[in-house]
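Re: [help] complex structure
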Amino acid sequence: MQVIFDNLPTFWGGFLMTLQLTVVGGFFATVIGSIIAVFRISPVASLRGFATVYTEIVRCTPLTLVFFFCAVVLPILGVDFPYLTFAFIALSVYTSPFVAEALRSGINGVAIGQAEAARSLGLGFGQTVGLVVFPQAIRMTIPPLINVFIALTKNTSIAGAFFVPELFAAGRALVNQNGNAVIALLLGVAFFYLVITVPLGQIAAHLERKVAVTR
Amino acid sequence: MSGSAILFDAPGPKARRLSRILSVVGIVLIAAGLAWVVMTLAAPRQTSGGLELPGMFDESRWDIFAEPIVWRSIGEATVRTLQAFAFGAVGALILGVVLSILRTAANTWVRIPATVLIEFFRGMPVLLMMLFILLVFSTGALWAVVAALVVYNGTLIAEALRAGIESLPKGQREAGLSLGLTPLRTRLLIEFPQAFRQMLPIIVAQLVVLLKDSSLGYIVGYPELLRTTTNYLANFYGNRYMFSLFFVALAIYLTINLLLSWFARWLSRRTGSGSRRLGAAGPAGAGGAPLGAGEDTASAAASSNL
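Output below.
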């Protein structure tokens, strides 16, 4: 136990880095995911096809491979960024199709009569989606989206293996220095992850119940 | 996307032409982007030292694949990946079933610890678990990978099964009890088979996640596909093969995962009619047909697993 308090600054630094990875990665994943989701329901067939293929391929690629591509293969190809930027890119690209699918399943969950009503009032595609379908879909989308962000939080640990000094990497470094306190240190790392993921999960479950009642 | 047709008018001649033009423009843009990537990869490059390196599709970067021994070690690595997946999947399914039954038990002394256990393992990275098992139990890399995959995915499968049990109509349990079955037998014989069947697509999707996560073995030193190709083989034959070896590993992962996820979708379509019938009996069936009429909630949830 003492070893955790002694190394609290290291834990704290790693925790802040993990938070940063989650927030920035989540933000860009949401941006890319929203674009892909709009492509997926758009009237233009080639955009739909592109979005489908993108979703399928990225979703079936292990995150370790995405990270490996960004952190090891891209530098060989001559792209040079700091490792943190590579981690942001890998996390947001990997998470984006899951965001897109969450948004799309929310849109699919809106009753078909809503879209019919909007269309019969003479609204176009943009207005139907933007003013009628999307505001309703977003409510149903929030719980699955939070689950995506929980998974993202856990996935940031892989960045630790690719040269980003976040929580997992901090834990691993501390374990290497204090071989006699492995269990305490790793449980400490687990605690910091749970601090993020458990409250998010509670919020998601709460919202899910609320949405389920009003639907 | 049969449902999306409702979002816009059936296109007239003008709109059809516009959409066709946009489609062509889109295809051209995407093709141009892909062509640019391929050209960039294929172009020879100068290093900072003034050396000229051959492009990524140059023969000198791919010639190792003519050697059968390379393919044999890739094949063995694939087998090791699938081995971790197979052990992990079987273990996770067993653990998931057991935990879901404990989690829904009537006895508080069983239910609460199971809940805490599930919440604890669900909220923590698999990678951390692998490291923990590797260092604390010194099991060796394979069993560290397998055990972490079992615990992590087992808890997630348990949660899916619990949701399946709770979504069943109450009458199922009441009917079982009124036939004189004990509560446990009702759960095992009446509720569980239905929940399992309903949640099968989500469970298979979770197995896709398990397969993807087996690549974390790369980090804890298990010689699975990624580590074998990009580490051992690339070190042995030289770094210039890194890109081609990575490309082959990616292609193998994609093939296996796409097959598995198509299987998941096929399953969800097949079991879809059964679960919709059940859903229609409950309150969830109210509120009109969803926009994507072809897709039920189980398959939508299946596709959102990370």
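Residues 2 and 184 of chain A are 9 Å apart (CA to CA).
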